[in-house]
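Supplementary Data S3. Sequence and C-alpha cells for construct A.
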Amino acid sequence: MDLSIVIPAFEESKKIARDVEAAAAFLGGNHFTGQIIVVDDGSKDNTAEAARSVEIPPDIKLKVIRYQRHRGKGYAVRRGMKDTGGQYVMFADSGCCVPYEDTLRGLELLKSGACDIAHGSRKMRGCHIEKAQSLYRRICSRAFHWFVIHDMKIPAEFTDTQCGFKIYKGDVARQLYGQCITDGFAFDIEIIMRAQKCGYRIKEFPIDWTCDRDSRLSPTRSSWRVLFELMTIRRVMAKNKSLRP
C-alpha cells in the first residue's frame, strides 16, 4: 500500500472520529491505497469505540488497537508502527492540528530522494500558525529545544523536534521504531538519534498548524518524566556507541 497513518490517542473520544474521517478523506482524495491505525493508549473513555464507529471507504483499511494500561505516546506510536505495511508511513497527533494535505509536502521530499524522514515543523519560514501556543508553553518549548541541542547534541538545524506530524520511508520507520525503547513524550529525540546513527537523512518542511489547547502533555506535570527519559536515552545511545565494532 502507499501510505500508513498512525494516530496515537489517549482519552480522545471527542476528537478521534474527526481524525479518522480526515485521514480517510486525504487518502481517498489523493487516490492513495492505505491504512489508518488508531492506537488507544489505555483510555478510560470510549476512544476506541468512537474510532471503530467511523464509516470510511471499504478500500481504506482501519485498525484500532487498544490496551488496558496507559503506557505513553512513544509506546503508542511504536505499537502502531509495528502493524504498518505502507511504502511510506506517518504519525499524526489527534485533533487535526495539521491538515493532512500538508503530508504531500513531506512525501515529495521522500519521493524525490532528498531525505529518508520528513518532519513537519511549526517554526520554519513558510509555516502558517492559525492559533499559537500559550506564552508558557512557548517558553517551555524553547527551553526544551535548547536542552536537546546543547545536551543531547541534536543538530541545531532541527527547528521543531516535537511536532506531532512526521513521515518516513516505511522500512526506515519500522526499523527505527523496532529499536526504540522510550514510552513517553521524548521518543522523538530517541528516533532522531537512532536515525543519525544509521545515517538516515532528515529534513523538515513547513506546515499549517492550529494549537490544540486540550493537549495531553502538561509541561508542569511531565517535566521530570521527560528529563528522566532524555537521560535514559543519552545513556543507552552512549552505551550502544561504545559497543560498536
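Construct B, processed identically:
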Amino acid sequence: MASRKPDMTAFAEAIRSRRRVLDLTQDEIARRIGTTTPYVGHLESGKRHPSERIVVKLADALGMDRGQLFLLANPQAHAIISPPDEDSNRSAWQDFRRDKQLQRIHNISGEEMVLLSRVELMGRVRSPRDFLFILYTVRQALGRET
C-alpha cells in the first residue's frame, strides 16, 4: 500500500506568494535558508516536503509564523494537535473569520473575505484551511499575485 503524501498546495502557494511580496528571488531564499535554488523551486511547486528545520528557516526568512507554516506543510498534524471541536454548531467560516493572524500571513483582502463569506453560503465548508485552498485557487485562476 502506497503512503499518502500531504497536499502541499497551500504551503507552496503561501511561500511563493510571500517571497514575491518581499520581492525576493528563489536564489535569495535558497541562500538565506542554506539550500539550493532548485530545492526552493520544488517547495514552491509542491514537489518536495520540507523538514521541520527548513520550515523554521523559511518562516524566519519570509517573516512568517513558524507554527502556521508548519501546519501548512503538515496538514495532518493539525488533527493531532487540535482539540476536538466541542461546539458542533461552530462553523469553519467563524473560525477562519476570527483568525486575524492567518489573514495577515496570507494577505487576505477585504474583497477576498467577502468572496469567501459567499462561499460559506453555498454550503458547509469543513475546515478553515479549506478556505485557504479556495482562496489560492481563485487567486491562481485570476492570475493575481499577492
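Residues 84-140 form one domain. The mean pLDDT is 85.
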